[in-house]
Design goal:
The chain is α+β, with helices and mostly antiparallel strands. The chain has twelve helices and 19 strands. Among the domains are: 89 residues, Pdz3 Domain, CATH 2.30.42; 205 residues, 2-enoyl-CoA Hydratase, Chain A, domain 1 (Alpha-Beta Complex). Strands 1, 2, 13, 14, 17 and 18 form a six-stranded antiparallel sheet that branches. Strands 10-11-12-15-16-19 form a six-stranded mixed sheet, with helices on both faces. The radius of gyration is 24 Å and the shape is globular. The N and C termini lie far apart (50 Å).
Length: 436
């Protein structure tokens, strides 16, 4: 199975934390059935020297973002020599050929290109299942969006889903979750938090929540949550608003319905919110762009190693094609979110409000392996209709307005339009621009 995605690694993390999933794939670290490879002969006779490093400051070649300048010749023989000696002499017991091949495959993906090491990755069966669930936009959980600090183990609530279990239980953006099911997470990884939040629909999960200086235990029953679904509204009487949190299988149809509804209400301007949007399905991002970009106009171009440059031209008929657009973006806007913003800037003269975006202008391919694992690698780079790349540099806004995640999350849950605009200064700025 091949799937073209624009999903940044941080997006996977955030999406997994938005809600707790019920998919029960293999536990990370479990291995498929071993298949013993044929013996590999080595033409390199390694010279062994026992050394003991006195200090970590004497660590040579430990920068994962740097490729040594010296050529690495006779690579197959060198690989076989290392493989043989690790299996025979490494201090840990039980090292198998499959352990070594897994490490080699992961290292090949992550270290072949320092610039793309965050995106090129070997995925375990469990991680693969999580990603597939994420791209469908539906999961089982508590209905919260969080950030995790491994140094403290604290889980910051940056958003809650309207009507979800967390909101009904009184959890709000700005709260801090100290424990999940009475477990602490200092020094642990974000997947540890996700693994404990996840479960089956109907099963309870408890959070120790710090709110306004008081620590309370909040119990929530896990439920199915449709997340990253676009939503829309009318602001200031005549300004349409559409939020696109990511590009899942549901995005195009949901945005199309939102735009048709706003058109029926005769809005005179449109705020397009791609804050926190870190990509998703590449084809869905392009298809969604056709709802805004005039037919025949270029949406973007891709540059691949063998095929060269390919221009993608809109074949759609824009809805609200004659109204001015202002785009909201932030430091977590990446991939498809950046793609859409740049396309509308170049083809519809859309203005932008917010801060510089993440700068991920690349497309990854997800491909299955015969042992249940999968690998994600960079397929192409992206270029805007004006021929610019935003990879590694991001896109600067026309009007810079900063806003922290907690304020944005509180604004999304505000009970009135007035309260929402008071909390969300980026949205208020965009709406005022269109009302003039």
């Amino acid at each position: 199975m091949k799937t073209t995605i624009q999903l940044s690694s941080s997006h996977v993390v955030l999406a997994l934390l938005i809600a707790a999933g019920c998919s029960q794939g293999k536990e990370e670290g479990s291995e498929p059935a071993s298949t013993t490879p044929a013996p590999l002969a080595s033409s390199v006779a390694p010279t062994s020297t026992a050394v003991a490093m006195a200090s970590a400051s004497h660590d040579w070649g430990d920068d994962p973002t740097e490729i040594p300048k010296e050529r690495f010749t006779n690579g197959e023989a060198a690989f076989n020599a290392v493989r043989t000696h690790l299996k025979d002499q490494y201090y840990a017991d039980g090292l198998t050929d499959d352990d070594l091949y897994r490490a080699a495959t992961a290292g090949m993906l992550e270290r072949i290109d320092p610039r793309m090491r965050k995106w090129n990755k070997l995925l375990s069966p469990h991680e693969l299942e999580e990603m597939k669930t994420d791209l469908k936009g539906e999961i089982v959980g508590a209905g919260i969006q969080i950030d995790f600090d491994p140094a403290t183990g604290y889980i910051a609530v940056s958003g809650v889903y309207h009507g979800g279990a967390a909101e009904r239980a009184g959890i709000v953006p700005g709260d801090t979750i100290v424990r999940v099911n009475d477990k602490l997470y200092k020094g642990m990884k974000i997947r540890d938090v996700v693994g404990d939040i996840r479960g089956k629909a109907g099963d309870p999960v408890s959070f120790s929540v710090l709110h306004d200086g008081k620590l309370d235990v909040v119990k929530i029953v896990r439920e199915r949550v449709v997340f990253d679904t676009p939503d829309h509204s009318v602001l200031l009487g005549s300004v349409g608003y559409v939020r696109i949190p990511s590009f899942t299988e549901r995005t195009h149809d949901a945005v199309q319905a939102a735009l048709n509804d706003l058109a029926s209400k005769k809005v005179t301007g449109l705020v397009l919110d791609v804050r926190q949007n870190q990509g998703g399905l590449f084809q869905e991002a392009v298809h969604t762009a056709e709802l805004f970009v005039p037919a025949g106009a270029e949406i973007l171009s891709t540059k691949k190693r063998k095929e060269g440059t390919e221009k993608m031209v809109s074949k759609g008929t824009p809805i609200l094609g004659d109204v001015p657009i202002v785009i909201l973006k932030d430091a977590k806007t990446a991939s498809g979110g950046e793609l859409l913003g740049a396309a509308l800037r170049d083809t519809r003269k859309a203005r932008t409000v917010g801060v510089r975006t993440m700068g991920k202008g690349s497309v990854q391919m997800l491909d299955d392996l015969p042992n249940g694992y999968a690998y994600k690698y960079t397929l192409s780079l992206l270029y805007t209709p004006s021929g610019q790349t935003f990879d590694g540099v991001g896109l600067t806004p026309d009007i810079e307005v900063a806003l922290d995640d907690v304020s944005r999350g509180k604004a999304m849950s505000a009970p009135t339009e007035e309260a929402r605009l008071a909390l969300d200064v980026q949205l208020k700025t965009a709406a005022e621009l269109l009302r003039r």
